């Protein structure tokens, strides 16, 4: 038989105070006004189970415990390795102490709209939440993760922009072309540093008359002495 045959609406029954709903089967009255309820279309079986047929499905549910309505019911366990039962996702499960059955002390299994406040009552933690509850929780977690991720990304972008801006400012402060330090030589329009004459290593000579040509004496010319003037 296909395992999916034991998927919901097969599962553990709902523990409800009062009568079961119009869309549910009443599967017994374990104590006081509490009843076990199974979805319509399933059969009430032993150990608080709802199965597709009378043959039973508990052996399958032991391997994969879940509520008959796993959308709006939460699954609880009375004790490790014990019996399972379900409560509406809007309520809480507890073990009601101080009860008697055939003259012996016993414990009842119940669901409360709030947290039970009886001195002998013990609140239980769900083994599995209904999928409708999990779906809304996951959506909230996803939405929170998206918002947090966007905020983190914006913070990283702002930090990178700040570091780049600071780096550009530092580079501009140490660049002689853009520095405002008066000790740094100014830049002329052509991108060449302008120097005062006393800092210029090259000294241009004064230019003579362009129409006058200068000639040097030939090397083999011997200058002659002028004759001495007669003494008078």
UniProtKB/TrEMBL annotation:
<feature type="domain" description="Epidermal growth factor receptor-like transmembrane-juxtamembrane segment">
    <location>
        <begin position="142"/>
        <end position="173"/>
    </location>
</feature>
<keyword id="KW-1133">Transmembrane helix</keyword>
<feature type="transmembrane region" description="Helical">
    <location>
        <begin position="141"/>
        <end position="163"/>
    </location>
</feature>
<feature type="region of interest" description="Disordered">
    <location>
        <begin position="171"/>
        <end position="232"/>
    </location>
</feature>
<keyword id="KW-0812">Transmembrane</keyword>
<keyword id="KW-0067">ATP-binding</keyword>
<keyword id="KW-0547">Nucleotide-binding</keyword>
<dbReference type="Pfam" id="PF21314">
    <property type="entry name" value="TM_ErbB1"/>
</dbReference>
<feature type="compositionally biased region" description="Polar residues">
    <location>
        <begin position="176"/>
        <end position="186"/>
    </location>
</feature>
<keyword id="KW-0472">Membrane</keyword>
<dbReference type="GO" id="GO:0005524">
    <property type="term" value="F:ATP binding"/>
</dbReference>
<protein>
    <recommendedName>
        <fullName>Epidermal growth factor receptor-like transmembrane-juxtamembrane segment domain-containing protein</fullName>
    </recommendedName>
</protein>
<keyword id="KW-0597">Phosphoprotein</keyword>
<dbReference type="InterPro" id="IPR049328">
    <property type="entry name" value="TM_ErbB1"/>
</dbReference>
């Amino acid at each position: 038989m296909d395992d999916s045959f034991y998927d919901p609406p097969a599962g553990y029954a709902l523990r409800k105070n009062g009568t079961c709903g119009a869309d549910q089967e009443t599967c017994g009255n374990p104590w006081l006004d509490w009843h076990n309820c199974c979805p319509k279309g399933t059969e009430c079986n032993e150990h608080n189970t709802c199965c597709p047929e009378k043959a039973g499905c508990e052996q399958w549910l032991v391997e994969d415990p879940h509520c008959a309505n796993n959308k709006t019911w939460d699954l609880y366990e009375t004790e490790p390795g014990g019996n399972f039962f379900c409560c509406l996702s809007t309520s809480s499960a507890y073990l009601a102490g101080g009860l008697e059955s055939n003259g012996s002390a016993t414990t009842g299994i119940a669901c409360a709209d709030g947290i039970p406040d009886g001195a002998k009552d013990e609140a239980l933690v769900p083994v599995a939440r209904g999928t409708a509850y999990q779906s809304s929780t996951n959506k909230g977690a996803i939405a929170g993760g998206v918002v947090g991720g966007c905020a983190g990304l914006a913070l990283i972008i702002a930090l990178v922009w700040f570091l780049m801006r600071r780096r550009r400012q530092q580079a501009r402060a140490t660049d002689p072309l853009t520095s405002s330090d008066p000790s740094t030589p100014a830049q002329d329009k052509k991108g060449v540093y302008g120097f005062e004459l006393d800092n210029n290593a090259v000294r241009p000579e004064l230019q003579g008359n362009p129409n006058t040509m200068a000639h040097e004496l030939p090397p083999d010319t011997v200058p002659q002495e002028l004759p001495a003037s007669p003494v008078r």
